[in-house]
Amino acid sequence: MRSVVIDKSRDKVNDECGVFGFYNNDDFDIVSLTQDGLYGLQHRGQESAGITVIKDGEPFTVKDIGIVSTVFTEKNLKKLPQGKISVGHVRYTSHKYLDRAASQPLVMRYIEGSLALANNGAITNFPEIRAKLEKGGAIFQSNSHAEVIGYMISTHRIETDSIEEAVLCAAEDLKGSYSLVISSPSKLIGLRDPHGFKPLCIGKLKNSYILSSESCAIESIGGEFIRDINPGEMVVIDSEGFHSYFVNKKKTTSLCLFEYIYVARPDSIIDGVNVNLARRKAGEILYKEDPVDADIVCGVPDSGLDAAQGYSSASGIKYATAFIKNKYIGRTFDVVGIDKKQRLLKTRLNVIKNVVRGKRVVIIDDSIIHGNTSAHIVKVLRDAGAKEVHVRISSPEFVHSCYFGMDLPDSKDLVSNKYSVEELKKLIGADTLKFLSIDGIRKIASGCKIGICDGCFSGVYHADKPKIKFEDKFENKIKKV
Questions:
Q1: pTM for the whole structure
Q2: Rounded distance, CA 116 to CA 89, Å?
Q3: Are residues 245 and 305 in the same domain?
Q4: Residue 249 has what pLDDT?
């Protein structure tokens, strides 16, 4: 096997953001409900959080770098009035492009009033649109795709009779993935891209309406999940009720499959599929494809736990909790210095020694990006006395980049493009290593109401890839925090 130095940078796929909106037809504490909704979406992004409340047509915003609990202090929440409409956002972005000005909701004032906008996704023709707007005199404060979308909407609003028409016109020019929650002075709007890459759903609390990236956030505030917003659908909520419109539909829809594998919370239902059941099914199929004799099956917290239970159910091998996750340790890629990253990696997961000592262990994780986390997991299991360590991954090998909102490295940096499965097994120190097949992963979402995107595994995309990379064209213009 080739010698290798394991990359100590991030070793997990991360999503872009979570969006939330509330239209208050009752006498609710809209600030507290929106904050609680964002707690329910915190897993989708921990780099920044924000809330905009619309009262008497005027926007009031609190947003900053940090998680929900640190941004929305008692002092900050007092800055937000009780209003009619709210828009909330939690953001993930790579450390390299952590831009304070890009924190959302984005609030823009223009000739027709104001817009508050929160987005989850990646506009693949963003560089071209931004360059065109800049040539027309637009001045940008951030590297945010939401800012470009806001400019497009405000431009079209001057030419159209309503905010709904302006949003639909802007959507005609957008390519890629987006799930948007937008507020005008009097309307709450939700829009999902025609491919349906990112989830977006609607719920109710008494007579009030809720928009959210996931159903779990609706239920966490006591609301009732109504349905998913369809690919290409725009919903508008105003004083007259609920309205639905469509942009150009696509023949092929493409919900990101990694929502079921890793991103979404297990208690969410996305396009007709329960996330918990999808992950359990992945574990069941994984055992059927690659059975192994062992004493216990364990999952890597958190997304590996459900798949491990499915593997246990299919195999009859006892399910056991082998790891305790310290949820108060920062992410290893948010800090500077290899030594500190290594220390944090060691303290994030602690093994329960008496559970694994002398046992043949099957450990289930959702993915391998660089390999450093898997190598660490195998090592601590062996140090705790595990007799054998068999690694099973509840997704196929990552061999292609994602262009539609998942933060994956370039394909050349993915470990599965550098090493065979046998080489990778030796690299991480496992007795055996197996990945779920592409055919297997497609089965976990067999009840999905729309098509799926598995381009990061298969290399097949149902939407146009970007012609220009934002990093290549605008990297020197980005202002770091």
A1: 0.89
A2: 11
A3: no
A4: 76
